Amino acid sequence: MEGHRERKKVRTRRALLEAAVRLFSEQGYEQTTIAEIAAAADVAPRTFFAYFSSKEDVLFLQAEDRGQAMLDVIAGRQPGEPLGALLSRMFDGLVRGLADDDELDFALSPLRARLMFAEPALRARGLTLMMQEQPRVAAALCEVYPELDPVSAGAAVGSFMGALSVAGLVAQQQGGSNEDVLAAGRRGIEIAINGLSSLGGS
Amino acid sequence: MEGHRERKKVRTRRALLEAAVRLFSEQGYEQTTIAEIAAAADVAPRTFFAYFSSKEDVLFLQAEDRGQAMLDVIAGRQPGEPLGALLSRMFDGLVRGLADDDELDFALSPLRARLMFAEPALRARGLTLMMQEQPRVAAALCEVYPELDPVSAGAAVGSFMGALSVAGLVAQQQGGSNEDVLAAGRRGIEIAINGLSSLGGS
DNA sequence: TGCTTTTATGCACAGGTTGCAATTTCGCAA
DNA sequence: TTGCGAAATTGCAACCTGTGCATAAAAGCA
């Protein structure tokens, strides 16, 4: 399975990936054209689409993997494990998965994360991917928590993901470091678990 | 202020709006081109962009208004009103605002809502708009709840919106009526307020 | 009627994306 | 080594969204 052909394909893919991320970082996402990426990777523009289905797709490689990882965590619910604990574990799994996310040698992940927050088009794509997974995650929850109806499960997943995202987003917009953003995410989860009434209830 | 000119502008705008929504409903969003919309409204394709800044924009007319409405509700917090109650009022305001949302004679809102859930591109746009508002809403919350830090406020807003959205989405995907979706949204809010630990905690 | 400000339109173009066909490259077997 | 077939690469044409620019058409006003 490792002939000259396969190796060349991998090399070309990586060249496109590297070129894209580098150019995106240097001159911005919108300002970078597919023609430039292809030129930097020394292939024809048309060939780009043989490797990636769209410009955005370069930055959202293992999206399905992460969705599957979430489902796996849910399926592995410990007997008697409360919902909140399970979702916290899911969050940890997500973070770990993102860290391991190294199709490239150099660290693509931080660049991708920064771009994702900075570029509206990419943020939109990320949101969409996230939202698409949520009903599936909710359905998985229903299976391991038989007492949960689908709407409640959806609400739980939405509350969890929403709290996590916006808390992280606020922290990021306040100029927080990656650790700050992560901590904010955890704090968001806590709030989702304990309920909004545990906050400024006065 | 109501010369022939103004009236014609309104008429053209409405024609474009009607044509767009009708064509979107009949043949789908992606399958409808701006050229078709313009032809149906009997104007040149270029003119479409004099009335709407993009194809998506046709369906997201008063997005800023709704964001502002949320901020208004928050600013009008009753003394001692708990966070959950305030957010519930915000939801009611949103629903009422959507119902009053009748730039056109015929009911655009239901069609728009259905399209928004059905078409990925539109769902993405809706999510993005919603997400963009959330930090602002969180900041407004911070002002009327001085004991709230920004990250917690963000978590609260995210949890609220997320629960509301996904509960509604699940209900909609299960073939629920508009009322079902609304009820699911309310249930989602309740869950966000009481916390996930109030669910399948066993 | 003639002048001015909008409004509508046409034209050209950039960029993303797809389909198709031709061509190159590679793997493999004779 | 040669030649065949599959796979990869590429070029080309086309479509669609969106923008800038210049011009024509229309409407208000003097």
Shape of chain A: globular
Q: In CATH's first tier, which class of the largest domain in chain A applies?
A: Mainly Alpha
User: What's the helix count of chain A?
Assistant: 9
What is the CATH T-level topology of the largest domain in chain A?
Tetracycline Repressor, domain 2
The structural domain count of chain A equals 2
- Number of beta-strand segments of chain A: 0
Largest interface: A-B, 56 and 56 residues
Output the helix-strand order of chain A: HHHHHHHHH
Proportion in helices of chain A: over 70%
Portion in strands of chain A = under 5%
Please tell me the CATH architecture of the largest domain in chain A by its name.
Answer: Orthogonal Bundle
Could you give the distance between the termini of chain A?
Answer: 65 Å
Main pleated-sheet profile of chain A: none
Low-confidence stretches of chain A at least 5 residues in length (pLDDT < 50)? none
Give me the oligomer status.
Answer: homodimer
Structural class of chain A: mainly alpha
Mean pLDDT of chain A: 89
Q: Provide the gyration radius of chain A in Å.
A: 19 Å
Describe the 3D structure.
The structure is a homodimer of 202-residue chains. With 202 residues, chain A is mainly alpha-helical. Chain A has helices spanning 4-27, 34-40, 45-51, 63-75, 83-99, 108-118, 120-144, 150-173, 178-194. Chain A has 2 domains: 4-53, Arc Repressor Mutant, subunit A (Orthogonal Bundle), CATH 1.10.10; 60-196, Orthogonal Bundle (Tetracycline Repressor, domain 2), CATH 1.10.357. Chain A has 9 helices and no strands. Chain A is 72% helix and 0% strand. The model of chain A has no long low-confidence stretch (mean pLDDT 89). At the A-B interface, α5, α7, α8 and α9 of A face α5, α7, α8 and α9 of B. Chain A binds a DNA duplex (30 and 30 nucleotides) through residues 3-5, 8-9, 12, 33-35, 43-47, 49-50, 53-55.
